[in-house]
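Model it.
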Amino acid sequence: MSRIEACLSTIKKNNGKALIPFLTAGDPSPSITANLMHELVLAGADIIELGVPFSDPMADGPVIQRASERALAQKTNTDDVFNIVKDFRDKDKITPVILMGYLNPIEIMGYKKFVEKASKVGVDGLIVVDLPPEESADLQEALKLHDIDQIFLLSPTTIGDRLNKICKAASGFLYYVSLKGVTGSNQLNIKKVEEKIKEIRAQSTLPLAVGFGIKDAEVAQAVGRISDAVVIGSALVEKIAKYSGNTEEMIEEISSFIISLRKALDNI
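Modeled.
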């Protein structure tokens, strides 16, 4: 059982809901990211999703695109991301860490080398935004050898055979992108999300996380009622950007935000 599976299984047994915050590695600087990850865990995060900075993040909205730009301006590369995870793992052997990014940096390094490095530093899961399941066999084989879960995105337009294919290929959990378009956009329609979740659950017994469009504790709670996990991205990254000039204030703000989400999920 992977660290992700164990984490989500324990939470489910306790009738809880998982909280998965996203931040971009290297934003505002590589030296602070591991500390921010620890602060997120202290505030109530169950799993950390760490974005790998990329120059053309097509699935991301302006907030996370700018986070990638800030990280790249700090010269954050893939090896820096691995070093951040290693630093985090020196103190935290329990909290699962998922890398989320794009195929290009993985291909440049090579599947085998990338996965070996990821495994060595303690990465538990991988989301490759622009790698469909029908093209993922080689990477999936490498990930399985190192017990790293490959997590796929599902969207409102994922239906039929494609939905079935993704459900079969995925491990760890399924990640439902609750809005069409890019991260941080529009407003959530909880009823439509619930309908789609029922459709997905008919195809898979994997835990289901919902992300995109979750901006505050109220929305997180509404989504938590119908899913197993809530992913918070743009709303958190916005706070990191807003307070990037003052580390102490940034930590205070993001901790307070995550605590509010944790309380909301614990009161379902």
